[in-house]
UniProtKB/TrEMBL annotation:
Domain of life of the organism encoding this protein: Eukaryota
Signal peptide (UniProt feature, chain positions): 1-18
Chain's gene name: FET3_9
Protein name per Swiss-Prot or TrEMBL: Ferroxidase fet3
Record's keyword terms, sorted: Copper, Signal
Length: 540
């Protein structure tokens, strides 16, 4: 039993013991056969792929010295970390920084106050899809649950070809849209999901299991038949403990749950990770794909075989039923409501792109963080960021509600940088041609908060967050094909306060100038509203 005094003592002890963890990362190409189906060029760190997970403890400082050995620029994003006052280290290339050119070094440093389960990935040229991704765990300074040991399970989709090669078809106007789907394999902890390491359970012990979906296009359903999962953490947010049978996770999503091992070692069990992506109508033969691993109580014990008879018997984790442990009520009143629709439309150049507003998102000539920092009061005007950054300027401490509709025929996972949002409501979208599958569902208790949320085919979602972190934060679909095609917007949050409290490191300024990237002015690097020189947006 942990008392309040114990907790305070533990916290104080931890602050005294806070460490600085410094990692040297050489990001480079390697030839690998990750799934048994073929060798291809991929991106690893220090010659390693899978890239080992990084563990720190709440309160520690993490410094990552990146050396770019690729022949193209790169950046890293620590997915889910707030980066309050350090927006320049958030990572998306040409948003909060210019990328690290080939052969150069840059250090990302952050001291997160958060705890929980995250991941780190390349955030330039979609290099995450080519292997540049790893789990990142911040252990609790004060334990949020009582458990004996923990396991980490990472889930990934893996393609036989590099992202850039796969995109040729997507970007070829002669190939009808949607292009023929390619077939990824599922990887569990970095290896072919059918070849997975064993999870060892000791009778009676309690295990915390963290699951991270690091995929680029695929969802995973994760179940442990014969064991119930008690969810305790959703993307760094401690949840009111809740029992479920399974997790259904979109790209970028994470959970922690507690499993109590059975009292005897009579049986061994399996866990299932089912890779799928929800297309309507379903594309036959594409998915799902089933992967299985062993939960071993005793070597050679018989396998427990009773499983749920169908998907419908499984109680899946549901955002709308989960509650935040901190009891924070629904934010309100709403200061600003932002209505978005994810649509795909064809542009004059023949390419079909996904958009959230009227135009597909596209990088500007000057990263919007630099525009926000250098334009004085004009930084409050969305116009100075150019049309393609799809900028919404938010006032400090406003309560923002995003209502996002998905009339497309595929589910999308949306990720907000620099924040978590409350999951407020799901419902059938009136913009969808499909008959409604579910009624409107609203959070009943203090809403769970997370940084990545799935909007299903034919539905809408409502989320709320407080604009309490001045910075420049992307909101984008985490399926890289969609992100590449422009399914993103940019929040420029409290730019005047940002100007007062943020100093960009000189090393970053110099790195930009060395590449001829301007570090001041509007999106085109000019004064005022003059956007001469900014590449034109594609015309619908
Ligand atoms: Cu998408």
């Amino acid at each position: 039993m942990i008392t309040y005094t114990h907790a305070i003592l533990f916290l104080l002890l931890n602050i005294c013991l806070a460490a600085r963890i410094e990692l040297d990362w050489d990001v480079g190409y390697m030839m690998v056969n990750r799934d048994g189906f073929g060798t291809r060029r991929a991106i690893g760190i220090n010659g390693k792929l899978p890239i080992p997970a990084v563990y720190i403890t709440q309160g520690d400082t993490l410094a990552i010295n990146v050396h770019n050995s690729l022949d193209v620029p790169t950046t890293i994003h620590i997915h889910g970390i707030f980066q309050n006052k350090t927006a320049y280290n958030d990572g998306p290339g040409m948003v909060t920084q210019c990328p690290i050119p080939s052969g150069a070094n840059y250090t990302y440093e952050v001291t997160p106050e958060q705890q929980g389960t995250y991941w780190i990935h390349g955030h330039y040229l979609h290099q995450n899809t080519d292997g540049f991704r790893l789990p990142f765990v911040i252990k609790d300074a004060t334990p949020i649950a009582d458990y004996d040991e923990e396991y980490l399970i990472s889930l990934e989709d893996w393609y036989l070809t590099e992202f850039a090669d796969r995109m040729h078809e997507v970007l070829d106007p002669k190939v009808p849209f949607p292009p023929p789907p390619s077939f990824p394999t599922g990887l569990i902890n970095g290896y072919n999901g059918n070849d997975t390491q064993v999870i060892k359970f000791t009778p009676g012990k309690r295990y915390r299991i963290r699951v991270v979906n690091m995929s680029t296009t695929e969802w995973f359903k994760f179940v442990m038949p014969g064991h119930r999962m008690q969810i305790i953490e959703v993307e760094g947010i401690r949840s009111v403990p809740q029992y479920v049978d399974g997790l259904d996770m979109g790209p970028g999503q994470r959970y922690s749950f507690i499993v109590t091992a059975h009292k005897t070692d009579q049986y061994n069990y399996i866990y299932n990770a089912t890779l799928y992506a929800n297309f309507v109508p379903a594309i036959m033969g594409l998915n799902p794909r089933f992967y299985t691993g062993l939960i071993e109580y005793r070597s050679g014990a018989p396998l427990y075989t009773q499983t749920a008879s169908s998907d419908h018997d499984i109680e899946w984790a549901d955002d709308i039923k989960l509650s935040s442990f901190d009891n924070e009520p629904l934010l309100g009143p709403v200061s600003r409501k932002i209505l978005l629709t994810v649509t795909s439309r064809q542009y004059a150049d023949g390419i079909t792109r996904g958009v959230l507003g009227t135009l597909p998102y596209n990088a500007t000539g000057v990263p919007p963080l630099f525009t926000a920092l250098t334009m004085g009061r004009l930084a409050m005007s969305p116009l100075v960021y150019g049309p393609q950054a799809q900028v919404y300027v938010l006032d400090h401490m406003d309560v923002i509600e995003i209502e996002l509709h998905n009339p497309t025929l595929i589910d999308h996972p949306f990720h907000l940088h620099g924040h978590v949002f409350q999951v407020v409501e799901y419902g059938p979208s009136e913009l969808s041609q499909l008959p409604p599958k579910f009624p409107v569902r609203r959070a009943v208790g203090p809403p769970i908060k997370r940084d990545t949320l799935v909007v299903r085919v034919g539905e809408y979602i409502k989320v709320r967050f407080r604009a309490d972190s001045p910075g420049v934060w992307l909101f984008h679909c985490h399926m890289d094909v969609h992100f590449m095609l422009g399914t993103a917007i940019t929040f420029v949050e409290a730019p005047l306060l940002l100007q007062k409290q943020t100093t960009v490191p000189e090393s970053l300024i110099q790195m930009c100038l060395s590449q001829g990237i301007k570090v001041s002015g509007n999106a085109a690097g000019n004064e005022g509203y003059d956007l001469t020189g900014l590449p034109l947006a594609p015309v619908p």
